[in-house]
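User: I've been trying to design a sequence by hand for this structure and keep getting stuck. Would you show me what you'd pick, starting by listing the structure so we're on the same page?

Assistant: Good idea, let's start from the same input. This is the structure you sent:
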C-alpha cells in the first residue's frame, strides 16, 4: 500500500525539491488539511486560480496567530486589505507602474546592470547575489520611489528583517521577540520615510514619493500611516522577489546547459525564458487566503477564518495546464503561470520585475563568455517558506 500522504512545508529536503510531492498531491490529495492547524494546503492550478479570483470568499485579512494579541500586530498594508479599501489604495499607485512608465526605465536599468557587472567581472569570482541580483532591483525601486540609492545597505537590512520568516508564522506563531523586532523595524522605516516625505512637501519632485505626499495632502485619499505602509510595502515586496528571480534564472540556466546554449544562440527568447523561470522556479511559492464563510472544497468543509495556502509552485507545475511541466523549456508557449498571483492582488510590480530580469540576464549573457558555480556545495536556502531562493550563489564569471 502507498505511504500515507503528509506534507511538512518546513522539511529542508522537501523545500529543496518539492515537485515530486506536489505532483503526488495534485493527483491524490488536491487539498491537504494540516493536522491540528486551521490551515489547508491547495495544490492544483484550477483551485488556486478560483480562490485568488474570488476575493469576497477568500480574504487577504488574516486572524492573528494563536496566542498573539491583535493590538500588538502592525496594521496591514494594501496587500493585507480587501476591496473596497484595497481598490482605493491600489488606484493611487497603479499609474506609477504602467507598462509605458516601466519601459522608460529600461536604459537606466541597462546602465546599472552594466556597472554592477563591470565590478563583478573584475573580481571574477563573486557572490552573485551580493554583487548583482540584490543591488539591481533595490537601486531601481529606490529611484522610482525617489529615495537615495546610497542608503541601500540600510534597505537590505530592513528588507531582510521584514521577510526573514514571512509566511512561516502561518504555521508556527512568531516568538514575542520577533514581534518586538517587527515593531521596531516599522518604527525605524516610518521615521525614515516621514523625514523624506517632509522634504517632498517642501520641494516636490517628479517621483512616486511626491505623488503619494500629494495624495496625502488632498486628505481623504491617503492617510499619513497609509502612505508609510505603502512605502514600506513597495520597498520590501519587490526586492527579495526580483533578486530571487534573477538568481533562479542563473541557476536554472546552469542546470540546463542545452537551454543556456539555446538562449545564447537566440537572445530574442529572453522574455519567454524569464517566464519559464517564473513558472518552473517560482520565487514566491505560496499565496495564502482566509475564508470569510463556510466553503466546500473537494468534499471537505472549510470553516470561516480557516486559512488556505495556495502553493503557486505546485499550480505552476500542473500537468492539466502545462504540457510536460517538469521540463524547463525557455521557448514554452501559452505560459499562463501564477507566479505573480492572480486577480485583485495581482503583483503591482510584475512589469517591472519582468523587465529587470530580462535586462539582468541579457547583460549577463552579453558580457560573459561563460559563468559557472565555484563549487558543487549545496547552496543555503532562504529561511522563509514563501521563497524558492538561495541566499548565496558563488559564481565564476569569464568576460567576453
Ligand atoms: C519576480 C518578482 C516578483 C514576484 C514573483 C512577485 C510576486 C507577487 C505575488 C505572488 C503577489 C500577490 C500576493 C497576493 O495575492 O496576496 C504580489 C503582490 C504585490 N507585489 Fe509583487 N512580485 C515580484 C516583484 C515585485 C516588484 C518589483 C514590486 C515593486 C513594486 C512588487 C510589488 C508588489 C505589491 C505592492 C503587491 C501587492 C499588490 C496588491 O495587494 O494589490 N512586486 N507580488
Amino acid at each position: 500500500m502507498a505511504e500515507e500522504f503528509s506534507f511538512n512545508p518546513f522539511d529542508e529536503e522537501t523545500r529543496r525539491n518539492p515537485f515530486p510531492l506536489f505532483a503526488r498531491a495534485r493527483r491524490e490529495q488536491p487539498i491537504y488539511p494540516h493536522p491540528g492547524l486551521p490551515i489547508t494546503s491547495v495544490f492544483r492550478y484550477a483551485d488556486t486560480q478560483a480562490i485568488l479570483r474570488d476575493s469576497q470568499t477568500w480574504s487577504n485579512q488574516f486572524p492573528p496567530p494563536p496566542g498573539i494579541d491583535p493590538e500588538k500586530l502592525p496594521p496591514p498594508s494594501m496587500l493585507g486589505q480587501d476591496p473596497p479599501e484595497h481598490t482605493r489604495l491600489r488606484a493611487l499607485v497603479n499609474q506609477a507602474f504602467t507598462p509605458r512608465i516601466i519601459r522608460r526605465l529600461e536604459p537606466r536599468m541597462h546602465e546599472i546592470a552594466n556597472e554592477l557587472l563591470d565590478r563583478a567581472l573584475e573580481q571574477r569570482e563573486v557572490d552573485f547575489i551580493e554583487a548583482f541580483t540584490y543591488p539591481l532591483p533595490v537601486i531601481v525601486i529606490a529611484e522610482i520611489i525617489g529615495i537615495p540609492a546610497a542608503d541601500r545597505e540600510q534597505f537590505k537590512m530592513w528588507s531582510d528583517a521584514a521577510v526573514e520568516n514571512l509566511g512561516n508564522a502561518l504555521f508556527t506563531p512568531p516568538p514575542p521577540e520577533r514581534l518586538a523586532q517587527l515593531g521596531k523595524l516599522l518604527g525605524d522605516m516610518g521615521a525614515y520615510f516621514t523625514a523624506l516625505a517632509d522634504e517632498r512637501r517642501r520641494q516636490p519632485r517628479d517621483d512616486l514619493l511626491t505623488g503619494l505626499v500629494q495624495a496625502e495632502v488632498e486628505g481623504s485619499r491617503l492617510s499619513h500611516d497609509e502612505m508609510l505602509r505603502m512605502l514600506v510595502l513597495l520597498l520590501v515586496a519587490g526586492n527579495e522577489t526580483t533578486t530571487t528571480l534573477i538568481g533562479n534564472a542563473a541557476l536554472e540556466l546552469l542546470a540546463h546547459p542545452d537551454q543556456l546554449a539555446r538562449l545564447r544562440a537566440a537572445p530574442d527568447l529572453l522574455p519567454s525564458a524569464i517566464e519559464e523561470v517564473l513558472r518552473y522556479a517560482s520565487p514566491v511559492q505560496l499565496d495564502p487566503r482566509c475564508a470569510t464563510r463556510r466553503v466546500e472544497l473537494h468534499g471537505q468543509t472549510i470553516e470561516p477564518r480557516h486559512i488556505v495556502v495556495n502553493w503557486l509552485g505546485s499550480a505552476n507545475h500542473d500537468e492539466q495546464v502545462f504540457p510536460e511541466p517538469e521540463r524547463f523549456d525557455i521557448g514554452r508557449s501559452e505560459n499562463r503561470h501564477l507566479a505573480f498571483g492572480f486577480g485583485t492582488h495581482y503583483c503591482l510590480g510584475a512589469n517591472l520585475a519582468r523587465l529587470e530580469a530580462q535586462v539582468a540576464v541579457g547583460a549577463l549573457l552579453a558580457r560573459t563568455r561563460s559563468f559557472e558555480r565555484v563549487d558543487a556545495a549545496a547552496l543555503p536556502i532562504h529561511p522563509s517558506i514563501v521563497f524558492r531562493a538561495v541566499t548565496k550563489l558563488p559564481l565564476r564569471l569569464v568576460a567576453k
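That's my pick for every position. To get oriented when you compare it with your attempt: Residues 173 and 292 are 21 Å apart (CA to CA). The chain has 18 helices and ten strands.
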